[in-house]
Design brief:
Layout: E1 4-10, H1 21-26, E2 30-36, E3 41-47, H2 68-79, E4 87-91, H3 101-117, E5 122-128, E6 134-140, H4 146-157, H5 162-167, E7 169-173, H6 177-189, E8 207-209, E9 214-223, H7 225-231, H8 233-244, E10 257-259, H9 263-272
Antiparallel strand pairs: 1-9, 2-3, 2-9, 3-10, 4-6, 4-7, 5-6, 5-8
Helix pairs in contact: 3-4
Length: 274
């Protein structure tokens, strides 16, 4: 058995299908995968003798709302790239706005291409105003002059509205990590603004980000489930105590889990060679 250590980049990780605990325990060999991100640690058990399903046979379902699972992935992405972000950008529409998600996404993609040409990383999220108009919040890795920002979005939308040129965009510096996560929490809490109006069609994705935002260090080992579960016992005990500080009860169910703020603890174990 050999321990494999790799460093990789990623946008978001598609979670492995949860396996029944009894099934995992009955399998002779499992693959333990530990991914150490900037703040959090992901641990996954994967049976070795069960063939993987090709992604080509899986169809993506139509997106109709902002799900809790999607919000969880967004939180994970921002948490583990927190040192990258410099400013919040807001993009809105004039009085005459499109009610088709395909059209608004074309506008958004044109703006994202502008960011890519400037080598600016981004994470965007979609909301709907009380008047039913879509608008985008974008977290960016570098500053953009307000006049340039306004001109670019005004030209992409083609509104021909002078008021929209002046007030159709906004940019605000991120003052601290608390400012960043407060903004993110407020976005996720406003679920009423994630529900598309009845007349809005083809809503599509509610958020997206630049490719390869996240980097992680990966460790893998193949062994029997019991031996692998003993290997991560210290991490499980630490995580249980860590959550207890916040009044959260956590019980490991014999499957993979994400240890929030577990990276520093993993580094300590590595230094001690445990």
């Amino acid at each position: 058995m050999q321990l494999v250590n790799e460093k990789r980049g990623m946008l978001e990780h598609a979670p492995l299908k949860k396996m029944n605990n009894k099934l995992l325990r009955s399998i002779d060999e499992c693959l333990l995968t530990i991914k150490v991100f900037e703040r959090d640690v992901k641990m996954e058990f994967s049976p070795q003798n069960i063939p993987k399903v090709s992604r080509g046979t899986q169809r993506r379902t139509r997106i109709v709302n902002f799900s809790k699972r999607s919000a969880k992935r967004l939180k994970f992405l921002i948490r583990n790239s927190e040192n990258l972000w410099k400013a919040f950008v807001t993009l809105t529409y004039p009085a005459d706005f499109p009610c088709d998600g395909r059209k608004t996404k074309k506008h958004l993609n044109a703006f994202l291409q502008y960011l890519r040409r400037k080598d600016i990383k981004f994470t965007w999220v979609l909301e709907f105003q009380s008047r039913g108009a879509p608008h985008y919040h974008i977290i960016v890795s570098d500053f953009i002059h307000k006049n340039e920002l306004s001109q670019v979005w005004y030209r992409i939308v083609g509104s021909q509205d002078g008021k929209h040129l002046k007030a159709g965009t906004g940019i605000e510096a991120i003052k601290s990590k608390g400012h960043l996560f407060g903004y993110l929490s407020n976005y996720i809490k406003k679920l009423d603004q994630k529900t598309p109006p009845e007349e809005f069609e083809n809503v599509g994705r509610f958020w997206g980000a630049s490719r390869n935002l996240l980097t992680f260090e990966m460790f893998q080992q193949v062994n029997h489930f019991y031996k692998l579960s003993r290997m991560i016992k210290l991490i499980r005990l630490w995580y249980k105590a860590h959550l207890r500080q916040f009044g959260i009860k956590w019980r490991w169910r014999g499957q993979g889990f994400t240890a929030l703020d577990g990276t520093n603890y993993i580094k300590q174990l590595k230094e001690l060679r445990i």
